[in-house]
Model the fold of this input.
Amino acid sequence: MVRILLRFSENVVEKPIISEIILELKVPINIITAHVDSKGGEVLAEVPDEALQKVIKAFRKQGATASIPKLIEIDDEKCISCGACLTLCPVEAITMDEGASVVFNQEKCLGSTCSACVDACPSRVIKSVKQNRSELVANNAG
Amino acid sequence: MKRLVESSSVEVAFREVDVVTTGTFGAMCSSGAIINVGHSDPPIKIEKAWINDVPICHPGAAVDLYIGATSMSKQQAFEYGGGHVIEDLVVGKEVELRATAYGTDCYPRTQVKTRLTKDDLNQFHLLNFRNCYQRYNCAVNGRDETIYTYMGKLLPRLRNATFSGAGELNPLMNDPDYETIGIGTRIFLGGAQGYVIGEGTQHDPQNRFGTIMVRGDAKKMNPEFLRGAAFTRYGTTLYVGLGIPIPILNEGLAEKTAIRDEEIFTNVVDYGIPRKSRPALAKVSYKELKSGAITVNDQRIRVSSLSSLKTARKIAGTLKSWITQGEFFLTAPVEHLSVDSVFKPMRQTEETSFVANVMQDAVMCSESEAVKVVAERIVTRSVNHIVVIDDNGKLAGIVTSWDITRALAQGKKALGDIVTRRVITAKLNEPLETASKRMAQHNISALPVIDNEKKVLGIVTAEDVSKLLGR
Done:
């Protein structure tokens, strides 16, 4: 599965776009997080790798923007394992092992849509990093 | 030591163990470095100086400077500061020094700009006036908004907690009566050997909040144990690695160094309260703190550390290997740390204003009242804000004269349709400055004052604040 970030403007937020695309393409779309109100919406969703291109195309056609969200990365070399980021993670993607080292589970991480840990890092070693889509697809295939 | 005392006895441990090593690695803001940059030609008596755009103190004669860890760069405020300058110098990076002066007959030069590495400095001494707190508070935030503090990012309504300190590994906790620690004690400091030069500022031994003042040759230090850091919206600081060897001179010290995290307690404190004295919400042990969660008023709160236990352990281990390999010799202190110093608050000769000083009676209404009735009240009482309360006198919302005007124009009659329910409030004992900052931040002109039970006590308005300031 690949995570995509969907943004809906005020003009299209009332339309049932996600349901329509699921029905039209017969592709499962798994919603990870969603913030929607009358002013617009932002949805982080997972789609199967092989359907990525057509799903993105379909959302753009409906007037939504679809992009690959930035990933959060922790520079292990520079991380001092203080743990300041731990309690800020809403999905517990950051934990501490028995040796008191900070361990980051990128698969659990919500990515740049959350970023709650970024400004809590005193060493400034947590960054959102743009994903290279081809590399990402290759990684998933491998 | 801890295991030996548990499995055998204090007597056995005293016979078997010669030295217990300790360690801590945390943000220590009262740190810095004294440097001597040498004389230029023609010479300059530096008045103002910057390194990598970070303002540097000039506390002494011509070219002696002090890099304070919390001094911040103008260009990259809150991101790069004195702590980072020290780290960069320790790493061996070249830094830019810029200085100005008024010029004298003996020091004619008025400005200088140059690039320096630690090798160009005559002295580069880490000189920290308060390090190694024996233990520290555990911080939470009772406010409705996220706050950024020197205890890190604290989520609203006690949704997380942070703590600092190594607990049972802390140097002063292992020798709480300072039998072996004092002026001249050789220690691990920033990856090199350093010395305790006295009690730290704010040393508070009777409350188990002891501190030390330390010095060491920063040219020999290692950036793994000396790291610049940035706390969002608080500022920059320096993580300092510090370890002290405790010689086991008597059975008492064997027993004291066997201290466990479950025996070290600290208070959970609400950093959302902008006052010096913050009430303790709970008492927790370092064992609970290190477990990842604490309980306060039956609420489970995830807690994380700001200091690195991993590096603290490494420091204690490194110090141990130095000693066993004969690279580090223990010293007896020339003078012991004080055990009865008192940490006094500031003597204030000018009055500070609190919300209570300017608060007025709030004009109130209940939600069942009609818009027209409330409109009349605004006119007769000549106010702009009406606080809406429920049957128990508790805050239910707020309406402004603007809300009422608009409702009348649109023909709305029920107050319930126009009430703002998410009300930004103030507390009675809050400094006026924080309350007025909150008004500016939310672009509003009044804050209902409530107690902990949300009962309305009054209202403070921007108008009252400016009247007071204009006095």
